[in-house]
Amino acid sequence: MARRLAYFIAGLIVWLLLSWTVNYQEIIAGAAVALLAAGMFGGYLPVEPKKLLNPVRWFWVLVYIPVFGWQCLKANIDVALRVLSPGLNLKPGIVKIKTSLKSEIARVFLANSITMTPGTLTVEIKDDTLYIHWIEIRSDDPEEMAKMIKGPFEFFLKRIFD
Amino acid sequence: MISVLALLFLWMGVGFVLLGALGLARFPDLYNRMQAATKCVTLGVCGIMIGIFLRSGFNPLGVKALICAAFILLTVPVSSHALARGSLIAGVKLWKGTVKDEFTKDRGAEPIIEEEK
User: Fold this and answer.
1) What is the dihedral angle through the alpha carbons of A105, A111, A115, A119, rounded to the nearest 10 degrees?
2) CA nearest to A92 within chain B
3) What's the pLDDT tens digit per position in A131-142?
4) Do residues B92 and A120 make contact, with C-beta atoms less than 8 angstroms apart?
């Protein structure tokens, strides 16, 4: 039930942001749609609702956003330079790394963040193993490789979701 | 001031989208192309969206652009992941310079790295 309530509130907030009015007709229509969506899909919400009320987690979300933005910008400049360099500097391969994150949603966010960082693209998650396509393999040691790929993300995601 | 910043974001976005398109043409195989398509294009589109938001401010258009940027950031990695995984399982070949492929090895399937001609 709490899951559905959280889903309903999130849905209503997105609806109100999209319409950007406080007209009562909009709110009633949004509530009806959010209620329908929450009834249908609320049970699939992958976050435990009581974790959503913890301010410490939200603080880490706020720290995570600029960290992610910076990594994202670095990734783009890296790929852009590769595109423009005459030899392309490619040495691609698919490697696997382990993660210590426990919850599924944290793993999904780690995979998404890895996809947005320089030269790495998550191909598959199987339990705690992530398969990653890396555009230029710079190391052979699994530990070092995992550190280079995961960057600072695991530290933050553990505090946000686990 | 803000309109200058908005233009800066718009041009940055357009530049990254252009580079992403160039990467699509230049990289040798599907998986490397996916890298260009996910990274450059995501940040490029987000830059354009933020530029639109800065130009129009807090009105329906600007806020919609921001929400659009957030959803693009959340969904593009997932779709690229699904495409890459599907291609690997379907046996789309990796470029001949590829060093290793642990995913196919762990699945126990035939290696799908292109052979040197």
Assistant:
1) 160
2) B98
3) 888 887 777 777
4) no
Q: How many CB pairs lie under 8 A apart between chains A and B?
A: 126
Grouping H, G, I as helix, E, B as strand and the rest as coil, residue B8 is helix
CB contact under 8 A, B22 and A83: yes
Q: A72 at the B interface (CB within 8 A)?
A: yes
pTM score of the predicted model:
0.83
- CB spacing of B26 vs A83 below 8 angstroms: yes
> Which candidate from A83, A122, A131 shows the least CB-CB separation from B23?
A83
Helix crossing, A104-116 with A142-150: angle to 10°? 80
Asked whether the beta carbons of B103 and A141 are under 8 A apart, the reply is no
Please list the helix, strand and coil fractions of chain A in percent, rounded to the nearest 5, in that order: 65, 15, 25
For the segment A16-67, what is each residue's pLDDT rounded down to a tens digit?
888 888 888 888 999 999 999 988 887 787 777 777 778 888 888 888 888 8
